[in-house]
Predict the structure.
Amino acid sequence: MNHEELLVERDGHVLTLAINRPDQRNALNGPLMDAIRDQIERANSDKDLRAIVLTAVGAKAFCAGADLASGASFKFNYAEPRMAFAELFRAARRTNVPIVGKVNGTCMAGGMGLLAICDLAVAADHALFGLPEVKVGVYPMQVLAVLQHVVPRRRLLQMCLTGEPVSAADALDMGLVSQVVPADQLDAATAILVGQIAERSLAAIRRGKYATYAIESMSFEESMSFMEGQIGLLAATDDAVEGLAAFKEKRKPVWTGN
């Protein structure tokens, strides 16, 4: 992979990953997916990191999906049982660092998978979203593994079975994104959201994200028991003690992440 195809920038507590293939509509190839996965895995061990921003260069496309021009998108290496896209999804699911999508343009096919691994997403109002795979005789199989937890089933099936795109307003309505803003406000709106996260306790953020996803497949009783244990663990952290003290003393807390 050309290392300039993924731009990596660290600013304080925030890591920004920007796909830099605007001439290819920021389409994904194997090495690029591996690079994104590697950055997410590294971020999880960085105890000073509060958030990851996932975005792309340009105003036309966030990600058009797999790079079909390479001809390798649907070819399998049978000596390698795990595919790059699936491994990226697994890494995103394992990380406890919040991932915020900054959707600067069209988001299609595999790009919808990238969007789905984000915990929150801010989109420009001109962005379009779609799962057009059925139009070329395939189906968004891997993407469904992550999208099914984000979008209501009937809305998701309509996108999958017709291949037709939806607007940013529709994406907001179905919960695919959490905020839609004019394109010229995208940077500022994302910065505000990420800044709010970055000001919070690292211990609370990471433990909270972990717990949120951990209970996803649990029964009610299992999730209640699990969360009883989690609140006990969190209440014993230095950050929880500091947060309560700061509240009582009417001052800003000083987080240590412990």
Observations:
- The CA atoms of residues 109 and 242 lie 44 Å apart.
- The two ends are 37 Å apart (CA to CA).
- The chain is about 45% helix and 15% strand.
